[in-house]
Amino acid sequence: MEKFDRPDARLAAFGDQLLDVHDWLREELARLSDDVDAYPDGGTPPRGLRTHCLTFCTALERHHTGEDDGAFPALAARHPELAPVLDKLREDHHLVAGILRRIRELVEGLTPETGADPQEARRVRGELDGLRAIVESHFSYEERTIAGALNVMDASEWRGERPAFLRTDPVE
User: Fold this and answer.
1) Which residues of 53-75 are buried (b: 16+ CB within 10 A; e: fewer)?
2) Which residues contact 140 (CB under 8 A, 6 or more apart)?
3) Where are the domains of the chain?
4) Fold annotation for 18-166
5) Who's near 37: CB < 8 A, 6+ residues apart?
6) At residue 155, what are phi and psi to the nearest 5 degrees?
7) pTM of the model
8) CA geometry: angle at 127 spanning 137 and 36, to 5°?
9) pLDDT tens digits along 33-56
C-alpha cells in the first residue's frame, strides 16, 4: 500500500501529500514513456498503451483542475503573497492541457490491431518528451514554492475526503 493511500495519510501535511502525488505522476509518465518506447516506428502498439495514456492524461488533468479549483483559491485566501506563483502555475496548467489534448488526439487511433505509421509514433514520442520536460519543471517549481504553505494549512474541508489534487486512483 502506498504511503498516501494509508488511512492515516489524511493526517499528514498536505504539502507532503502533494509531493507524493507528484512522485506518483512522475512514475506513471515514465512508465507511459517506456510503453511508447516499446512501440517501434511503424510497429504495433503494445496492448494497453492507449488506455494507459488516456488514464494518465485524465489523472494529470484532474490533479491540475483540483489545484485550480480547490487548492489554489484556498492558498490565495490564506497566503495572498503567493498570487504571482499561483498565476504562473495556472499558466503552466494551460500549457500542459494543450499537450494532453494533442496526446489524446494522437493515441485515439492507436490499437494493436491497426498499428500506425512511423510518423505517428514519433509524434507521440515528441509530445510525451515535451510533456515530461514541462511537468518536471512545473512540479519542481510548485514543490519549492507552495508545498511549505500547504504543510501549515489547516483545511478541514480536505480532511474528510481526499481533494482532487491529492488523488492518485484512476477513476475516483
Assistant:
1) bbebbebbbbbbebbbebbbebb
2) none
3) 18-166
4) Four Helix Bundle (Hemerythrin (Met), subunit A) (1.20.120)
5) 125
6) -110, 90
7) 0.83
8) 110
9) 888 877 765 566 666 777 888 899
